[in-house]
Request: fold
Amino acid sequence: MSIVIDQTLCKACGACEKVCPGSLISQHEDGTAYIRYPKDCWGCSSCIKECHFGAIALYLGADIGGMGSRMQVQSKGDELYWNLTRRDGSREQIIINKKESNKY
Amino acid sequence: MQTGDTQTNRVHIQEKKLLHTDVLIIGGGTAGCYAALTLREHSDCSIVIAEKANIRRSGCLAAGVNAINAYIVDGQKPEDYVNYAKRDADSIVREDLLLTMSEGLNRVTEKMEQLGLVILKDENGRYVARGNRNIKINGENMKPLLAQAVGALPDVTVLNRVNITDYIVTDNTIHGAYGFSIEEPIAYEIRAKKVLCATGGAAGLYRPNNPGFSRHKMWYPPFNTGAGYAMGIQSGAEMTTFEMRFIALRCKDTIAPTGTIAQGVGAKQVNARGEVYETHYGLTTSERVYGTVMENLQGRGPCYLRTEGITPAQDESLKKAYLNMAPSQTLKWLESGKAPSEQNVEIEGTEPYIVGGHTASGYWVDTNRETTIHGLYAAGDVAGGCPQKYVTGAMVEGEIAAEHIASRLAQEDLQQLYAADEQAERQALDHKVAEYERYLNRTQQLFTAEELEEAMQKVMDNYAGGISTHYQFNEKQLALADEKIRQLIDLAEGLGASDMHELMFIYELKERLIVCLSVIAHLGARKETRWHSFAENLDHPDKSDEWLRYVNSKMEDGRLKIIYRDLVGREEHYEHRD
Reply:
């Protein structure tokens, strides 16, 4: 389980570094973020929700069946937009209204 | 830190901070944050929260939670919840703790709604129930809501990224704790009149389901490493029921929850032949795990939750529900191109955890949640005797402890009781810093903390009932586990750290090893099998009424002493007497 941080999109704001419940993210000297301990990631996605620039994505390790897709989330108003990009470039989106409770 | 010489860029403690506060809360998770809110309602005492990460998303609620799992729905009473938890744990519970917890569940839920939690309501404005004990919410942001409320409180100091390593205890009375920043070279001594331990339970004792790259893709937060248990054990606090391990039944690989599928769409547990097997083994939490283990052993695996044939609308609701608590499961469904309606969800048991919010392991507390160390309280996963407390129960425990702390502080003659001797306090901190520096100074090490952690997990897996032995063990194996864990404790003293973060890894390993010894001792002390899988003792495969009692333990002169105690009923207000 881990995340990948796109250095070209990272704006060095430090939000992800601050929120990680495992304190696993560090910042390079220029402030851009990187995951210092990739094997220690729980997959909670806190950092992904915190990033306003879409720079962080969640992926599944190959040892748990991962096939190279990446998932990101962006918050806009009351909605969370979860975006999946598969290895072949195809995409899928799920929108969640934060004001709506789970059905189950 | 790499093996060998790492002389370059070493970090040393640069600053020693001595703080004084009325109340120290160790761990800013669910229970700790709720305790701070309650304390501020009842007292103007000063509060310090020491949190290993950052309270915004730390602890069990980092990813969110799908439902309120402990709630007294219309038509049910707190006593019904006590009965349910007692049945699930086959009677080894503290009914006084369960009842006082159950009585507060709806109160804290209402408070969470005031803080902004979205709870599903019917047309009459009543919460919508999921079964007999749950209500439906959107709990993705529950922890940020709590953290925000704590952040708005006056005179509460939150120390983020501070790892607490030891209590300060003299004459069985707590005076505070020591710790260090994991970011800056700062050591802390935090002197407090009362201390609440809310560090959570212990993950990472056993070899996990995914021991490779995804080793932390586990049920419980991998960052909850049993610090609270270990500090209590080493300070001579009495602990209870560490033999009732928790093993979760989970979606394979992603280790995502199964309850949402089972309860949400009514999916049954089926084996590879499609036969429903859950009814053959029973429906308690441990029996659901045991049944899955047995079906696999008898050649009828893999096992699944039968989701094939659910509607497209149910598919969508499941995907959304998992995004709000375990996004990796939705990622798996999307990535594979197979929705749950098209493919049953494979399930497996996790490695065992010690966690007082689900089973009954933890501090032996009185009804006010005070431990056997005066002035030290415990709430949430670290507090024993009160299983099935979940998120809301952890909050109630934080509330009960906080109310008692506030009333004690108001009654006591604080000037006289807590006169500070700053010189002695400074000396004590110097002594603790010398211990931290021993690890920071070490330039040669044969093993790393990571390697010793792996060794510990293998020992527990092979000899103390892990996944590879189908959660079963016998006394010979436990003796070997004890011997090997002691060797690792010795080896851990030779570890070195090149920065403060690595110093935390060393202390996390050390606390896990201490907890392992207690788990091994407890597993051996209950000479019966009351809970399949959770404590499957092959030397004593049956259950006996003789064992309707608690197995407790206490460290005395460096040795764990086992104490057996009679069951406590719900009518009792339990106080520590001996």
Notes: Chain A has a mean pLDDT of 93. Chain A has one domain: 2-97. Residues 15-19 of chain A form the longest helix (5 residues). The interface with chain B takes residues 1-2, 18-23, 36, 38-46, 58-67, 69, 71, 73, 80, 82, 84, 86, 92, 94, 96, 98-104 of chain A (CB under 8 Å).
